[in-house]
Amino acid sequence: MKPIVAVVGRPNVGKSTLFNRLTGKRIAIVEDKPGVTRDRIYSEAEWLNHKFIIIDTGGIEPYSEDIILSQMRRQAQIAIETANVIVFMTDGKEGITHADQEVAEMLRKTNKPVVLAVNKIDDPTKFNNVYEFFNLGIGEPMGISSSLGLGMGDLLDEIVAHFKNIEEDEEEDDVTKVAIVGKPNVGKSSLINKLVKEERVIVSDIPGTTRDAIDTPFEYKGDKFILIDTAGIRRKSKVNEEVERYSVIRSLTAIERSDVCLIMIDANEGVTEQDSKIAGLAHEAGKGIVIVVNKWDLIEKDDKTMNEFRNKIRADLSFMTYAPVIFISAKTGQRVEKVIELIKFTANQNAMRISTGVLNDIISDAVMMNQAPMGKGKRLKIFYATQASTKPPTFILFVNDPEIMHFSYERYLENQLRERFGLEGTPVRFIYRARNEGE
Questions:
Q1: Annotated binding residue at 60?
Q2: Does pTM surpass 0.85?
Q3: Is 25 annotated as belonging to a binding site?
Q4: What does the alpha-carbon distance between residue 350 and residue 390 come to, in Å, rounded to a whole number?
Q5: 336 in Cβ contact with 295 (< 8 Å)
Q6: What pLDDT was estimated at residue 248?
Q7: Which residue in 43, 107, 370, 417 has the fewest CB atoms around it within 10 Å?
């Protein structure tokens, strides 16, 4: 799994600027106004061959009655619970505030590694400002400037130093890890209980009953699985809490750890925007994917209903038409055992390896049937192909000019591979490398 790093702190200390600096992308909105980052943003970063997920949180303002600030505090709390390493950002110009002390108290209770970053140390004359932050009692403060990029190497060294235990903590190779993801109250816990044939997980009609991600090992016909249930958000007294928004980051954690993702859809609602976001995370992570439509027992149907529903899912999730769709009832057990067969099948497809000779034959035949595109006054030439990795199947194509490759032609090549080998339930990746004709 990729370790997860959460950047937390009160509003306007420079978290989004640091996030953009570490990910190399301008993703988070940066504005000199407290509370601009309303939702967590997440992206992949890399340092010294360590890949990790970094989360930019909204600012924490302890005990604030302001609705926006209280929402951001909840978002950050989920990020804190989800992260393996926490970067606590403070403002070196302003010094320690009461809010910083409250946040430090929250972080001390997590028992997780915390890296204390004192931001806005833009020149050496301000470095003495850093020493004050020893008073927070959560370790040695590191002076940085996220806007100028000062101190980034030392900060990243400190972050990745905490990854060793996470990266070494791998489960057995013969166990298939399955993330069950979806909106709150879609039936994730009910499905787990039905698969393992006992009440392992609390089931309630209240969204967000599952408070923490729970690993449930079980065996089926000699095959070993670990089911990863994704937690909902802790239920508060306010009825207008936007529970669904906060499930995405928990889903991301489970997806990163898994081999196969079951994306659960509520048959009564169809595909929602939240479902699309979660499905997109699984697709981008390159995992094996099965779309599970739950509560099928509650739908009035005729002989066309299932096909019509499947076609609607294909249209709504058009970026993953490769994923098999199964209609179940976790409550009655309808088709639940078939879900296990699909998990095994999809895991195998995600780990498929194609020999170099066969791969090049398929690519050559595809080019003969449909000429490669033109661009910049020349035609794309594909000299050689090889499979770089599995999970997902990833292919390197050596070409005369990678910029000429068009998305539609890549989709054509992908379809040719799927037609020959299936590759159902798994994304396919292509990497293009330039090579001169004489090489």
A1: yes
A2: no
A3: no
A4: 7
A5: no
A6: 63
A7: 370
